[in-house]
């Protein structure tokens, strides 16, 4: 819980950082206004000259384009950023609400599963002493001091040590993968915040350049890039909610199986570890998924690079984890 609160605080710091960096747009607005004014002069002059040279009437409507862009530049934080953020904020809030609902379900079912696993182990006379100290002491007291009893005591102590070692190692790998999963989420959110800050600060300049002929697509590309990167957060929340739902289904299946008195629970959490590895690799596909919602070539190229890195990192993580788990399991089993 403490780790989750720490990462939540870091995500909140990144959101506050974005809000605090927005006033820097005013530093670029003056330069962008000058660039746009010069571009508007060339834009209007060229079209008026073309109409006069052809003895055609001057079409006034297209001449409003540079002036509209100039108004957007002068009031960029309000007109442009405020409008886009206002439209996208409900999407972020809705996706985050979905994720929180699934997370609460995970905590509830996890506590129930842990309780049932403990009861299942305690219900079985062969494994009760592994999880319950009182049962272990009672069985030790029932034994005598004969050589066979002393051998039984030593065997029980070794089995208990092996079980605790398995539990400790399993909990270590699970905690490590959970930390790695949260770190990947934080890395993605940090990159998203950095890209949004850069786009927001230099956005007036992009709008100013789009005034010039040949660069009209710059504004459209900026909007696509901004919206695409902005969608990383809601898409990551949806991805987390899907992962949480899968975990809930896995836990529900375990709870149903634990109702059988003959069922032996998986204390190694091997399925959970494999699932976390898949989740870590899948988190890097979020930039690519965002380009499916709105086309942005730059973010797509970045997504391809991230996917390439994630596949390499996923193979390495899977190899290290699998080798470590196999080695530890072999040692504990005496192989």
UniProtKB/TrEMBL annotation:
UniProt keyword annotations, A-Z: Membrane, Transmembrane, Transmembrane helix
Residue stretches making up the Conjugative transposon TraJ C-terminal domain: 6-329
InterPro entries: Conjugative_transposon_TraJ (IPR022393), Conjugative_transposon_TraJ_C (IPR012424)
Pfam families xrefs: CtnDOT_TraJ
Record field: transmembrane: 24-44, 64-84, 194-215, 227-251, 271-294
Annotated signal peptide: none
Domain of life: Bacteria
Name by which UniProt lists this protein: Conjugative transposon protein TraJ
